[in-house]
Design goal:
- The structure is a homodimer.
- The first copy, chain A, is mainly α and about 600 residues long.
- The first copy, chain A, has 2 domains: about 325 residues, no CATH class; about 140 residues, Transcription Regulator spoIIAA, CATH 3.30.750.24.
- In chain A, about 60% of the residues lie in helices and about 5% in strands.
- The first copy, chain A, contains 27 helices and 8 strands.
- Chain A has a 6-stranded mixed beta sheet. In chain A, strands 1-2 form a two-stranded antiparallel sheet.
- The radius of gyration of chain A is 30 Å and the shape is elongated.
Chain lengths: ~600, ~600
C-alpha cells in the first residue's frame, strides 16, 4: 500500500532532529526553512501539485457532506495548510477537510440549525474556533494522552459505522432524490429505499459512472499505465487525477444538458470567486454550550486521525512526532479555518499518504497546495457551476468505502470477544442513535470491560517445582506445597478495580482451609499499588491476623517497595515479613521440614 | 475498636460452610436454621436487643434526616431485617436505615418534591422499590464488580463530604432555627450562619446536651463502668444505650416544658401506632426516570457499605461472603421496605459491629431486633410525642462525625498525589454541586487518573549485568549493552491506554539512534495484550521493518503467548523472533562478539 522506495533518501533529517532549541520546538518550520536544500524542491512541488489536484474536488465534496456550500471546503484548504506548515511537527501531513470530521460537523450543527442556511455556515465557523481552542488548550496542558480513551475496537466500530452513515447520506445525490433529514442514522436507509421510485436516471448515470471511473483509477489505472510503458512518476500523478477527470467530464455533461435546462439534475451552482473572506464568528453562549460535546469529539477524533498517520509516516524516515505540538498545530489550523470562512479540519489519511509517496520532503508541499487552491478560488470557480452533485457524492462514497473495516472486526472477534463487544456496541450505538452517543457508549463500554478484565486478575496458588527455587501454578504443574502455608501469585497491578478480588482471594484461602496459618503473596507481576489497594492490604493484614493467619510478601518490585517504605507500610508490616523470593519465604516458614 | 475476643468461639461454622447445595446458596438461612444450636441463643437474643435499643432512636433520626416522618424509619427496620435474615450470606450484618442512604434519599427526592409532603413519602417507596430491583438485577447478572468503580480515595472524599453535608443539615434542629433548603450544600453553612441570631436556646440546650451525653457514652462510659467493677457484658450493653437515654431524658424535659406549651421547641409529634401499612408504590414513568440516577447511586453505595463491613466481620470467623448473593439479599430487603411503608435500607457499619461484638451468632439476632421494633411501633409510639427534634439531630451528628476521615486523607496524600487529587475532586464536587455530581466527578477523575498512570508505563532500557544472565535498567546499573541492539522492558500490561506510548517508545528509540538495527521488547511484566495493543504491535513490526529495524520479543508469559499463537501473530511475526529470555536474544544477535 505504501511506496517504500521514498524512505531511503532522507537519512540526513536526523541532523535537523539534533538542533532542538525552543524556536525549533514552537515553530518546527524553522527546522527546515533556514537550510532548505534545492534538491528537495522538485519533490515538494510535485507532491503539492498532486495533493491540490485531489483536494479541489474532495474539499468541495466534503463541505457538501458537512451541509455547507462547496466554497467553504476550498476556503478550509488554504490558510489552515499554511498554519500547519509553520507549527506542525510532521513534514508530510496533509491537513484539510476530511470525511469523518465533515460528518461530525453535520451531526453536531445539524441538531441546532438547518443545513444550507446562513446560520449553519456561521455555526461551522464557531465550531472550527471551538475545536481550535480546545486543541490548543489540550496541547498546552499536554493532554494528548486523552486520545488513549479511544481504544482500537471503539475506533474501528465508530469508523465503520460512520462510513455507513456517510455513504448513505450521499445516496440521495446519486439517485437524485429528496430524502428528509432523519434523527437516527438507521432511518436514512429506510427513507432512501422508500424514495427509490423517484430516482432521477441522469443523476444515477452520472453518479454510478463517476463511482465506476473512480474505482478504476483507484485500483487499476496505475497498473495499466505502467503496463503501457509510462514512467512510475507520471503514472502515479495521473492515477491521482481520477476525481479531477470525473469532475471535468460530468461538468461538461451537465453543461450540455443544461443548454435545454431540464431533467432535474442537481448541480453545484454559483460559487463566489475571490479569496476567502476574513470572518470572525459571532459567539453566543447558548450556541457554544450546545456545540461543546461535538467540538470535544472533533478535537479528539481529528487529533487521533492526524497523529496516527503522522506517526506512521514519520517512522519511515526515522523522524519524530511530538503529540502535544501536533495538537497546537491542528488547533492553530482550526482557528485559521474559523477566521477565513472555513470549517473544522484535520490531517487526512489518504491525502497524507499521497503527499508522502509523491515525494514531499518538507511542509513546503503543503504551502504549494494552499497556493494552488487559492488560485483555484480566485480564477476557476465559474468552471464548477455545472458540476453535478452526484459526482461529488461519488467522490465521497469511494473515499469512505475503505473505512468500513470488516477485516479488523474479524480479527478482533477472533482475538477477544470482550473487545469485539466494545466494537459492536459502538457500531450499533452510532447507527441507532448518533455519533456523539455512539462514541460515548464505545468509550464507556471499553472502560467497563477493561475494569472488568482487570478486576478479575489471574491468581495462581503456586508450589515448589521439585527441589528447585522455581515456583509454579499448582493446577498446571506437579509441585510441592506446604500444609499450613499458601503461596499466592497475583498477575496484575493492584488498584481500585481489583482490590476487592485481592481481599476475596486472601479471605477465601483462609475460609476454605481451617489449618492455614500463613499466606505468602507473591508480587512479581505487581507493577504498582494504588492507595485503594494499599488500604485493602493494610486491612487484610489486620483481618488475617484476627483469623490467626500471618501474611507475608515476596518478590516486591523496586519501585513498589520504595513507595511502601515511604508511606511507613514496611515498618508497620514488618520488614522481616517481606522476602526477596518465594524460596526464602518457604525456607523461613520451614516448609521443607514439614514433608 | 473491634472486640476481638468474640472471634475465637465459632470455629465450627466451617461445618456449615461445607454444606453448600443450591438451597443453601439461594436461602442462606437454611444453613443455620435447621441445625440451630441452643448455646447460640443467648448471644443472638442479647445482640438483637442491643441493636434494637440503638436502632429505635437511630431509625427515627435517619428518617427525619431523609426528610421523612420518623415512623418511616421504624417501618424500614422490621420487614427488611427479616428478609435479609433469609437471603443474606452474612450472619451478623445489621440492615436498616443508615445516614448515607438517608442523605442520598433526601438529595434525590428533594430535587423533585417538597420534604415532609405525602408526595415525598410516596416517592421514598418508589425509590426503595427501584433500589431493590436494581440490586436484585445486579445480583442476578452478577454485576457486583461494578462497585470496583468506587475507588478508596473517591469513597473517602465522598463520605467525608457527605458527613459535612449531613451534619450541617442537622444544625438547624440543634439551633432551633428555620433554614431554607439550598440547591448546593455549601450554601447551607452560609444560611445557618445568617440565621444564628434566631437561635432557640432551649433547643440548643437540648441539642448540645444530647451531643455531650452521646459523646461521653461513645468514648468514656464503658471504660468508667469497667472501672466501677461492672462486668464486660453489662458495660457493653449499657454503653450502647446512650441514644435511648438522651431520648428519654429530653422527652421528659420537652414534656415538662410543653405543659405550659411555649418556647417553640420543636418536637416529633404524633406517630401513628400499629404495624407498618401494606403499601404498593404507584409508579409514574416520569418519576421513575427522574429517580434513576439516585437509585443507581444508592444501589452501589449501599452495597459498598454493606459488603465492606460484611466481609470484614466474616473474615474474623473464617466465614465467606458471596457479593452477588448480598446484592440479592439487599435488593429483596429494599423491595420489602417499599411494600411496608419504609425507604431504602442497607447494612449499617456501626450497628453491624455492635451486633457482632454483642455476640450475634446467626441472623436470628436480626429477627429479634425486627420483632422488638415491631413491638415498639405497636405499643410505644405515644411515648415519642414529646421527643425533641434537636435530640434526633444530635444522634445523627454524633453518628456521622466519625465519617469525616481526615486521617485517610493525610495517608492518601502522603502515598499518592494523584489519588489525593481524586479524593479532593470528589469532596469539593459534593459540597459545591450535589451528591450525584460529586460521585460522578469522583469516578471519572479516578478513571482518568488511572488511565493516565497506566498510559505512561515505566519503561527501562536494560543491559547485561557483567557476564551473568541478569538484565537491569541501564540508568540504575553498570551494564553492558549492544551498539546496534536495544533491549526495552515495559512494566505494564499492554492495552488501549498505553499502546500509543508503546509505539512512541519503539519509534523514539529508532529515531534517536540511527545505527539501531534490532529492538528486543521484554514482556516479563506484560500480563495481557488487548486487541488495541495487538494492532499496535502488528503495525510497529511493519513500521520498524520499513525503517530497517528488526523487532524481537522476549520473556512472553504463557497465557499471553497462547493468545498470540491462537490469533496467528506468532506465525506471522516469526517464532524464531520470540525468545524465552533476554539472554538468548542477546546471544542470537551476537552482542557478545561486538564488544
Amino acid at each position: 500500500m505504501f511506496d517504500t522506495a521514498a524512505s531511503g533518501n532522507r537519512a540526513d533529517t536526523s541532523k535537523h532532529g539534533r538542533k532542538s532549541n525552543l524556536l525549533r520546538k514552537v515553530f518546527p518550520i524553522s527546522g527546515w526553512v533556514s537550510n532548505y536544500r534545492r534538491e528537495d524542491l522538485i519533490g515538494d512541488l510535485m507532491a503539492g501539485l498532486i495533493v491540490a489536484i485531489m483536494l479541489v474536488p474532495q474539499s468541495m465534496a466534503y463541505a457538501m457532506l458537512a451541509g455547507l456550500p462547496p466554497q467553504v471546503g476550498l476556503y478550509a484548504s488554504i490558510l489552515p495548510l499554511i498554519i500547519y506548515a509553520v507549527f506542525g511537527s510532521s513534514r508530510v501531513l496533509a491537513v484539510g477537510p476530511v470525511a469523518m470530521v465533515s460528518l461530525l460537523t453535520l451531526s453536531g450543527i445539524g441538531a441546532i440549525a438547518q443545513a444550507g442556511t446562513a446560520e449553519f455556515v456561521a455555526l461551522a465557523l464557531i465550531l472550527a474556533l471551538m475545536t481550535g481552542v480546545i486543541q490548543l488548550l489540550m496541547g498546552i496542558a499536554r493532554l494528548g494522552f486523552l486520545v488513549n480513551f479511544l481504544s482500537h475496537p471503539v475506533l474501528v466500530g465508530f469508523t465503520s459505522a460512520a462510513a455507513l452513515v456517510i455513504g448513505s447520506s450521499q445516496l440521495k445525490h446519486i439517485f437524485g432524490i429528496d430524502v428528509a433529514r432523519t434523527e437516527h442514522p438507521y432511518q436514512l436507509f429506510i427513507n432512501v429505499a422508500n424514495n427509490l421510485p423517484e430516482t432521477n436516471l441522469i443523476a444515477l448515470g452520472v453518479g454510478a459512472g463517476s463511482i465506476f471511473v473512480l474505482l478504476y483509477f483507484k485500483y487499476f489505472f496505475k497498473r495499466n499505465l505502467l503496463g503501457l510503458g509510462f514512467g512510475s512518476g507520471i503514472a502515479d500523478t495521473l492515477s491521482k487525477a481520477g476525481a479531477l477527470l470525473v469532475v471535468l467530464v460530468s461538468t461538461l455533461i451537465a453543461w450540455g444538458i443544461a443548454l435545454d435546462s431540464g431533467f432535474g439534475l442537481k448541480i453545484v451552482g454559483e460559487i463566489p470567486a475571490g479569496l476567502p473572506p476574513l470572518t470572525f464568528p459571532s459567539l453566543q453562549t447558548s450556541q457554544i454550550i450546545a456545540l461543546i460535546p461535538i467540538a470535544l469529539i472533533i478535537s479528539l477524533v481529528g487529533f487521533m486521525e492526524s497523529i496516527s498517520i503522522a506517526t506512521t509516516l514519520a517512522s519511515r524516515r526515522r523522524q519524530k512526532i511530538d503529540p502535544n505540538q501536533e495538537l497546537i498545530a491542528l488547533g492553530a489550523a482550526n482557528v485559521g479555518a474559523s477566521v477565513t470562512g472555513g470549517y473544522p479540519v484535520t490531517g487526512g489519511l489518504s491525502r497524507s499518504v499521497v503527499n508522502f509517496s509523491a515525494g514531499a520532503n518538507t511542509n513546503l508541499s503543503s504551502i504549494v497546495t494552499a497556493v494552488l487552491i487559492a488560485l483555484t478560488v480566485l480564477l476557476f470557480t465559474p468552471l464548477f457551476y455545472y458540476l453535478p452533485r452526484a459526482t461529488l457524492a461519488a467522490i465521497v462514497i469511494v473515499a469512505v468505502a475503505s473505512l468500513f473495516d470488516l477485516k479488523s472486526f474479524r480479527h478482533i472477534w477472533a482475538y477477544s470477544k470482550t473487545d469485539a463487544a466494545a466494537l459492536l456496541a459502538t457500531f450499533l450505538a452510532v447507527l441507532a442513535f448518533n455519533i456523539e452517543i455512539g462514541i460515548g457508549v464505545g468509550v464507556a463500554t471499553a472502560l467497563v470491560l477493561h475494569l472488568y478484565r482487570t478486576s478479575k486478575p489471574h491468581v495462581a496458588v503456586v508450589g515448589r517445582v521439585g527441589e528447585t527455587e522455581h515456583f509454579r501454578n499448582v493446577l498446571r504443574h506437579e509441585v510441592n506445597t506446604c500444609p499450613d502455608a499458601c503461596a499466592v501469585r497475583i498477575d496484575e497491578s493492584l488498584y481500585f478495580a481489583n482490590t476487592r478480588e485481592l481481599e476475596n482471594t486472601l479471605l477465601s484461602a483462609v475460609a476454605d482451609n481451617p489449618e492455614l496459618k500463613n499466606i505468602i503473596l507473591i508480587c512479581s507481576a505487581v507493577n504498582f499499588i494504588d492507595s485503594s489497594a494499599l488500604d485493602t492490604l493494610e486491612r487484610a493484614v489486620d483481618e488475617l491476623r484476627d483469623a490467626g493467619v500471618n501474611l507475608y510478601l515476596a518478590e516486591v518490585k523496586g519501585p513498589v517497595m520504595d513507595r511502601l517504605k515511604a508511606i511507613g507500610f514496611v515498618d508497620k508490616f514488618g520488614k522481616e515479613n517481606i522476602f526477596l523470593s518465594c524460596h526464602q519465604a518457604f525456607q523461613f516458614l520451614g516448609c521443607e521440614k514439614e514433608r
